[in-house]
Design a protein that fits this description.
Elements lengths: L2 H9 L4 E5 L10 H9 L3 E6 L4 H6 L2 E4 L8 E4 L3 E5 L12 H11 L11 H9 L9 H7 L2 E3 L24 H5 L19 E6 L16 H6 L4 E4 L1 H6 L7 E5 L4 E8 L7 E5 L17 H6 L11 E6 L1
Parallel strand pairs: 1-2, 2-3, 7-11, 8-10
Antiparallel strand pairs: 4-5, 5-6, 7-12, 8-11, 9-10, 9-12
Helix pairs in contact: 1-2
């Protein structure tokens, strides 16, 4: 999400918001801007399976959601449609998201918002296409949960490409017209002198999806990875008087967070690393767009934020 995408929350005068699961600080670059925008809304309702950073920070009310095993869903692959049927009844007052929205629309008098009696009707509508041979959910339950989609197994089998020439173009005049380099180039990041350490994040074996509070809702994973830990080189640590296990603060012009230092020669000097998902990481990352607006309009999937960051580290 780009910062401009948060602006409507500030300008539209929204009074109430219904938030679907985890959406903010640990997932979006410069997530503190969205948190502040949500904080100005009169009523924020979150739907979550477990408490999340979003619900803890801004929710006035949390509605219990369902797990994947407690709701019927689907997944589209490159060549197949897969029915993911419910195998457990929801516990307590938990409801699948479609039911919450459908019931809310009914109470608000929004006729036709969800015109089906169950999720099966929605899936039947999604499957009512020639590429899925107009299949029905009940047919998939009877014959098997996976359906071969009537699409080629690989892209561009006719060797026709959506370019001006119809060929693969190594030099792109289209990209050049959008303000992008016509050939792939390496653009080194701009490193501020006040924040000399490149801040990199990644996954670990103990990290899990945001749906499960990044693993913190699962006791065994939470025990294996209990707090934010920043890996840094012995050289960078010694320059700052930081020893292994010390409480530290990492910060830049966007914000800051606390963590525990892990000094290791596995890290090269000038770079620090942390497992993704911890609250505070994306108060440090950049929300600047990766490509110009013209390219975003032509290729909507390319409009993500940069997410890069340079930081300084000190003892907490």
């Amino acid at each position: 999400m780009h910062l401009r995408d948060v602006q409507p929350l500030r300008d539209l005068g929204l009074r109430d918001a219904l938030v679907e699961a985890q959406v903010q600080d640990d997932a979006l670059a410069a997530g503190q801007h969205l948190e502040r925008a949500l904080g100005r809304i009169r009523l924020v309702v979150c739907i979550d399976l477990f408490m999340s950073d979003t619900s803890r920070a801004v929710a006035d009310l949390v509605l219990p959601g369902t797990s994947w095993l407690e709701e019927t869903g689907f997944k589209f692959g490159a060549t197949h449609f897969h029915l993911m049927d419910r195998v457990l009844e929801p516990r307590g007052e938990a409801r699948p998201m479609w039911r919450i929205f459908s019931d809310l629309a009914e109470r608000l008098g929004l006729d036709g918002f969800f015109p089906w009696s169950s999720i099966d009707g929605l899936l039947d509508a999604a499957l009512d296409h020639q590429q899925t041979r107009h299949a029905k959910v009940e047919e998939l339950r009877a014959s098997g949960p996976s359906l071969r989609i009537e699409v080629p197994s690989y892209a561009y089998g006719t060797l026709e490409f959506p370019t001006p020439s119809g060929k693969v173009e190594f030099f792109s005049a289209q990209a050049q017209a959008m303000g992008l380099p016509p050939l792939p180039v390496y653009e080194p990041p701009v490193q501020p002198s006040a924040f000399p350490l490149a801040f990199v994040q990644g996954r670990t074996l103990a990290h899990f999806h945001a749906f499960y509070d990044h693993g913190r809702a699962l006791p065994s994973l939470a025990k294996a990875d209990s707090e934010p830990t920043l890996l840094m080189s012995p050289l960078d640590a010694s320059k700052r008087g930081i020893e292994d296990g010390a409480r530290i603060r990492l910060y830049n012009e966007n914000g800051g967070m606390q963590a525990r230092a892990r000094v290791t020669d596995r890290m090269p000097a000038g770079t620090v690393w942390m497992r993704t998902g911890w609250l505070g990481i994306n108060r440090l990352t950049s929300a600047a767009r990766t490509v110009p607006d013209a390219a975003v309009a032509a290729f909507p999937q390319s409009g993500s934020a940069r997410y890069d960051a340079f930081v300084e580290v000190s003892l907490a």
